[in-house]
Amino acid sequence: MHELAIAQGILDIALNTAVDHNATSVVGVKVIVGELTGTVPEALEFGFIALAKGTMAENACLSIRIIPLTGHCRDCGSQSSIDKYCFACASCGSHAVEIITGRELKVESVEVE
Amino acid sequence: MEITVMSNILEKNEEVAAELNAMLTKRGIFTVNLLGSPGCGKTSLVEQTVSLLKSELNIAIIEGDLYTSKDADRIAACGAPVVQINTQGGCHLDATMVKSALDQLDLDEIDILIVENVGNLVCPAEFAVGEHAKAVVLSVTEGEDKPLKYPLVFRQSAAVILNKIDLLPYTDFAIDCAVRDITDLNQQAILMKVSCRTGAGLTDWLEWLKQQVQLTRKLKM
Questions:
Q1: In whole angstroms, what separates CA B158 from the centre of its chain?
Q2: Which one of A2, A31, B157, B221 has the fewest CB atoms closer than 10 angstroms to its CB?
Q3: Which residue out of A87, A98, A100, A111 would a mutagenesis test of the B interface target, given it has the greatest number of B Cβ atoms within 10 Å?
Q4: pTM confidence score
Q5: Is there a contact between B196 and B165 (Cβ–Cβ < 8 Å)?
């Protein structure tokens, strides 16, 4: 249930953004979550709602966009999606595959009023 | 009004972790974040490590546990300095907890710092604690399906310690499948087959630790 700690991070960013812009409430928060973060969206939502109670973000809508896992092969240079966590290059079979996307845990934007 | 922020949610933890990592590197203290399920043998590995290496290297341990000091008591009995962190139900250690625990250790006297995380293959993988490397313990009694079920921790670990190999004849653990899946996830990881109970294979682990100490000392210079 580390989603609670992540939800706290999202809430902190949302509230700080609202304060920086002299807003009175947070209406929505858009986050991106990589496939390889072990984060369960439902648990993140649950944690966010619980933590946001009594704050400016109490009625904020949290929208979560999942980013698929993709990689770049250091040997042949090709880029491909990584299926079933097999980090072998789809083109040449090399295991020297670096992650391009799929590790994100970011707040993209905060909508305030 | 929609404000674009693009902020890293874990930024605060990562800042503290980076600060700790820099301080530990400067002091030449190799720090390993030891991960694994409850009961996989993390504490047994720490006990063996302390017993077998303490004549050569100074080892200190930070023990993460939900509520008890049972593991820390075991380590203290082996003769190594240990600091207990009780997370009171929290599923992982974070960098701030480790930073507070470090205040209780004499950092001038340490070559290796082992941070034994809370028993959990999911949550601790996402939270850096200032380590130079993560190491994950997987015991054969857990089943060979675990690497693909918990890919992040296996992808991020520099060392994978396959423990309880003495029990292989009594389990259905398909070791070839486990090795294949770990390699598919992370070809760079060093895979060691050990038994903390019999001592089999532990030399590989101890040699790996000694190499890491040397590498950290080089970084210090």
A1: 10
A2: B221
A3: A87
A4: 0.94
A5: no
